[in-house]
Amino acid sequence: MDRLDKEKMPKAANALRRNFLRTVGIGAACAGTWVSKTLPAASSPQEAPIPNIPGYDWRKHKWAFGVDATRCIGCLRCVEACKAENGVTRDAHHFRTWVERYVYLKGDDHAHVDSQSEPGNIAASGSEQAFRFDNRYQDAPVEKAFFVPKLCNHCTHPACVQVCPTGATYQTRDGVVLIDHSYCIGCQYCVQACPYGAREFNHTMGVTDKCTWCYHRITKGLQPACVEVCPVEARVFGDRNDPESPISQFIKNNRVSVLKPHTGNAPNVFYVGIDKEVS
Amino acid sequence: MIGTLANAAPYVGYVYPNETDIPWSVLIVIYPYITGLVAGAFIVSSLYHVFGMNQFKPVARFALLTAVSFMFFVPMPLLFHLGNPQRAFNAVLTPHWTSAMSAFSYVAGFYVCLLLLEIWFAFRADIVALSKAKSGLQGRIYRLLSLGSDDVSPASLAIDHRFATALAIIGIPAAGGLHGYVGFLFGSVKAREWWSSDLMPIIFLLSAIVSGIGLLVVLYVAYSKKRKVPASEQALMGLAKTLWAFLLVVLLIEGLELLEMFYKRLEGIDTVERLIEGPIRYGMVLQWGCSIGVLGLLTVLIVSKARGRTLVAGMTVSGIAMMIGVVAMRWNVVIGGQELSKTSKGLLIYYPEILGHEGLLAVAFIFLCPFVVLWLITRFLSPWEVEAGKEVSP
């Protein structure tokens, strides 16, 4: 429609069109606001009131975790420390962190994998409440072997947060995924959604539980319990906002990878020294 | 905290330690199953109300009552499953909208209201007649149900019919949405290889419809036998043809999905093969055996233009087999998906408990409830056509 046509258009029709456009515009703006308020909830934390933690401002930190699998000796002190620190159910089916053992025997294409909760290892430790790897490969022709500590990846786009129907599990401003145990209904949708098997169900409380990177410790300037007890510094933790922090240095000085990047969850646990079999 | 999980799942290969505590039990198998039965029964009533397919007239109102009886119990398995059922309303009061599950109460609530409204319009003339015929408490209840509207003039009934049709029209996408939504609940879980399929909503929806038609056939035949009235051959043949069409499509889609999966052979396919050959072997045999068997039987019934006892017997067998086939499909999806470890290196084996709030007895109890409620409702509101004081089957 050229300028001339516009001028010819009766005033009433113009007014009608203006009204229509205004209505559509307002509608689109409302829909846009709704979409922008709703959808990003999956990927970025909504502005929440700053939690009252003395001497701690969550806007000033960006936590991340590193695992150097070439250093891990499979001593499982991290698992022990985590269970003790966080009151995790003391059996072979509930862990906030665990360690996997990958062993390639001569001539094998695939690794033999087990964790401390495997029956042979429980028999070796004598109980589900104690942790050790057995000596099953003592006389075997081992070609390559390594340990891989696992824990919640505190993803940037956490699928568990996306699927929680109540918002009981949420992402903090400083990049930690937490659960409000007083609000969780115990549907376990988040357990399904986590591709890493990092979530477990506390049957006594009827709620889901998981690693918090020891939020109660890190907000006091301490290290997570598993990092604190690791005798070989296979676990690294720190603030990515600080370029000199152990984690910033770890990421800078190594070629790091993350687990299952294809899920789009963007994990914040960075690995060094794992191979194709680790997922 | 010390505890040993009594019903931890045994496994082969490597699974993440936390996976041995299977999150969703057999209760979550019957949740989509019951929802599906609702969708299927409703679709049949719509074929009459919306599309004017008169062969479904004898079962149209009964299908509505069946749908609502089962719909009442859709939330029950979910509530039994929650770790903190007393907090269930958290998802209603503060829904976290990025979660498919947060919409459940709204989707289900909307659908219950829709069904109740449609039933009211479809039965209003009966309710008014009963409120006048019955006295005492019963009469008072019927009067209350008539909501003060006792005009049964032809003009008024025509308005009822128009409303019922409009509601049925809304009901079709709502029924489709309700069950497609349940499929989305599973299909959107990208962490579960066996669930994470774009076809999941449509497979859930179509299998829901076939299971619902199966249920309706079984109930209709059983009620006809109890009422000592022969089941309408027209209705049964109509149901046979509808079931055949939906079943054919669902079999094709499911078959194509498996074909693609095995042809593409993406990472982890070896474990998927072991899942099908192992933990869900019998489930797969039941699902595919029942579906292909029913398709064959229906083809014979339709081609041979079966009538009388042959039609009734054939359709009853088809209905029962369809219900078994679809419950097996739900098991294969819900349980099978969790038996396939997220490591792609191992399989878990789920054994349902018998007692306990997530056990087989609880499931049997929940599944029995809608049948009891349906029986009570039909005693209160007869869905069958009555002429000159005598029940007839058109």
Q: In words, what does this structure look like?
A:
The complex is a heterodimer of chains A (279) and B (394). By secondary structure, chain A is an alpha+beta fold. Helices cover 28% and strands 18% of the residues of chain A. Chain A has helices at 3-8, 11-38, 77-86, 119-125, 159-163, 189-193, 215-218, 225-229, 246-253, and strands at residues 63-68, 97-105, 112-115, 142-151, 169-171, 177-179, 200-202, 207-209, 235-239, 269-272. In chain A, the strands form 4 sheets. A 3-stranded mixed β-sheet of chain A has the order 9-1-10, covered by helices on one side. Chain A has a 3-stranded antiparallel β-sheet with strand order 3-2-4, with helices on one face. Chain A has a two-stranded antiparallel ribbon with strand order 5-6. Chain B has 394 residues and is mainly alpha-helical. In chain B, 68% of the residues lie in helices and 3% in strands. Chain B contains 13 helices and 4 strands. Chain B has helices at 27-49, 57-71, 75-81, 90-93, 104-133, 136-145, 154-187, 200-227, 233-264, 269-277, 281-303, 308-339, 360-380, and strands at residues 11-14, 345-348, 386-387, 390-391. The longest helix of chain B is centred in the middle third of the chain and has 34 residues, at 154-187. Residues 387-394 of chain B have low confidence and may be disordered. Chains A and B meet through strand 3, helix 5, helix 6 and strand 7 of A and loops of B.
